[in-house]
Design brief:
The structure holds two protein chains of two kinds.
Chain A (H helix, E strand, L loop, with lengths): L2 H37 L9 E3 L6 E3 L2 H32 L2 H16 L2 H20 L6 H25 L3 H9 L4 H12 L1 H17 L2 H6 L17 H8 L5 H29 L5
Chain B lengths: L2 H37 L2 H5 L8 H32 L4 H14 L3 H12 L8 H25 L3 H9 L4 H12 L1 H16 L26 H9 L4 H31 L1
Classes of the chains: A mainly alpha, B mainly alpha.
């Protein structure tokens, strides 16, 4: 292959992701335009999602799915963060040689399971347990939040582990030599040293949880109302899209693109914060 | 509290977290194996969805996955090569690398509605090409990242040796560096294939689904994952069984590819 062509093609490929991001933003904005002009920023607080009587127009607002997305993510983060930290600590500071490998592989396999499988399993096996313990009808905010947590734990644990592993052995050994317990070392040496990486992993997992579709679609209940108790069914932005996108037209379709745009911008901001600020890769 | 006691408690809690994680893995795998194996018959693999099998779905999902791989691998690898070999250490490379990483975590459903806008809406029909492009968009950033990482492991001396032999930049890349990084990059491609083959959200509004066998990518295209989503919500037992069978097969494929990928890197 021609040297110049090769270089140009590689440059083109490298810039492709940038143009994809710009392209996604432009397309979503273009399709959402009708809804943006109709509802403006009030879209965020309108709590109805109804088509007009003649099938055209209607009132569409993002309040319910936005709250559903935030609440399910919040529950997931509250459960996942301590568990993921625990797993990372186990893998870096507690487990011995022969245990690290199988546990790491198990956690990585957990991360590899497709999200739709989590949804299937959650619906048929986990939802009944939540119903038994907490009441409600099984599917709802809590079930979605817990299964979402199980999904993001391996992801968060893996990045936290990698961050913790960068702590120089000499630092830890010095602390141990001073009589520190393992927890002292974790708290006063490992955590401060790998702080940026740990925060980055939490924020990155948050970004993932916000946009997760399939697991939540099975479990959140898909009801267009705000949940008043954690066991109530509600809906999230990705699930609203997954369920109603293919039948939507005109203003409703545009409103869906408005939601997709919001989701894209928020998760982009969250993930970019994690990547550019906390998880800067040393080249 | 006594710090020795606190230490014990924290270590215990960490161990428990690891056990919870592994517990969920086995819980999911065991129920999946139990429901899946009891739902699988020989006809599951020989019949199409319309007759209670998953043959067309498997073929469809893999066809879209392969087309996506054919799109994503050259683009992703070339991008990785640019970041590592042509613009190493530059500000531009750092920004592009981070943007690619951000793309990796972009919500998959958004990729779906994005592709819908220019590959489905203008033609008025769901089609296999749109599904493949959506999967390719998911795949490119992963390939960029692995290529970049694997090239960074190639010793600098190899590049210098190439230069000393008078090789041009692209000859060195093609004939020395890529050869050295071959195993790592192949593993990366394998793992990213495992990632996208189980995707559902990007396919919902692009390929959608087809109950019949087809290789015509201009029409609605059969998808294993979209079918699982549809089937699981049907009330009848036969549909649910098919959903379990499909889930089991999908998980076995995904985990096997993962284990093979891991084994390949270990033995190196």
């Amino acid at each position: 292959m021609n040297a110049k062509l090769f270089r140009q093609f590689s440059f083109f490929s490298a810039t492709l992701t940038f143009f994809l991001l710009v392209g996604i933003f432009a397309v979503l904005f273009d399709y959402a335009n009708e809804s943006i002009r109709e509802f403006g920023f009030k879209f965020l607080t309108i709590d109805t999602w109804e088509t007009g009587e003649d099938g055209y127009g209607g009132v569409f607002g993002g309040w319910v799915p936005i709250i559903g997305t935030l609440m399910s993510t919040l529950i997931a983060m509250a459960i996942a963060t301590p568990l993921a930290m625990g797993i990372a600590i186990f893998l870096t500071e507690i487990a011995h040689g022969y245990l690290i490998k199988p546990v790491s592989i198990a956690i990585e396999l957990l991360a590899a399971i497709p999200s739709i499988i989590y949804g299937m399993w959650g619906l048929f096996y986990f939802a009944p347990i939540v119903q038994e313990l907490f009441g409600g009808n099984g599917v709802g905010l809590l079930t979605a939040g817990i299964v979402l947590a199980i999904m993001i734990i391996p992801f968060m644990a893996a990045i936290t582990r990698d961050a913790m592993n960068t702590t120089p052995g000499a630092l830890k050994e010095s602390a141990y030599a001073m009589g520190a317990t393992t927890f002292d070392v974790i708290k006063d040496v490992v955590m401060p040293y790998s702080k940026a990486g740990i925060i980055g992993s939490i924020i990155l997992a948050l970004g993932r949880a916000l946009g997760e579709t399939m697991a939540v679609a099975f479990l959140i209940g898909s009801v267009m109302s705000v949940a008043h108790r954690v066991t109530d069914p509600t809906i999230s932005i990705p699930v609203l899209l997954a369920n109603n996108f293919s039948e939507a037209q005109d203003l409703q379709l545009s409103s869906m693109y408005y939601l997709a745009l919001l989701l894209f911008v928020v998760s982009f901001a969250v993930i970019a914060l994690a990547k550019f600020y906390f998880l800067r890769r040393s080249v | 509290m006594n710090r020795l006691v606190l230490n014990k408690i924290i270590l215990l809690l960490s161990t428990v977290s690891a056990m919870i994680g592994i517990g969920f893995l086995f819980w999911i795998l065991i129920t999946l194996g139990y429901k899946g194996i009891s739902s699988i018959h020989i006809t599951t693999f020989t019949h199409d969805m319309v007759n209670g099998g998953i043959r067309n779905l498997l073929v469809g999902q893999f066809t879209m996955g392969l087309v996506a791989t054919l799109i994503a691998v050259p683009l992703g690898m070339m991008a990785g090569i640019y970041l590592r070999e042509y613009s190493y250490g530059s500000k531009l490379a750092a920004v592009l690398r981070n943007l690619s990483d951000v793309m990796m975590s972009a919500p998959s459903i958004v990729v779906g509605v994005f592709v819908y806008a220019f590959m489905v809406a203008p033609f008025g029909t769901y089609n296999g090409w749109a599904g493949s492009v959506a999967l390719a968009i998911m795949m490119i950033p992963i390939i960029v990242s692995t290529t970049d990482n694997m090239l960074s492991l190639v010793p600098q001396e190899l590049r210098e040796a190439g230069i000393a032999l008078g090789g041009s930049k692209h000859k060195i890349i093609l004939q020395i560096i890529l050869k050295a990084a071959k195993v790592g990059i192949t593993t990366g491609i394998l793992l990213s294939f495992a990632r996208i083959i189980g995707e559902t959200a990007p396919l919902l509004f692009t390929s959608s689904n087809n109950q019949f066998f087809t290789m015509n990518m201009n029409e609605q295209f059969p998808s294993l994952t979209v079918s699982i989503y549809n089937l699981a919500t049907y009330p009848d037992e036969a549909s649910r069984e098919l959903a379990w069978a499909a889930s089991f097969v999908l998980t076995v494929i995904v985990l096997l590819i993962n284990l093979i990928g891991r084994y390949a890197t270990r033995s190196k």
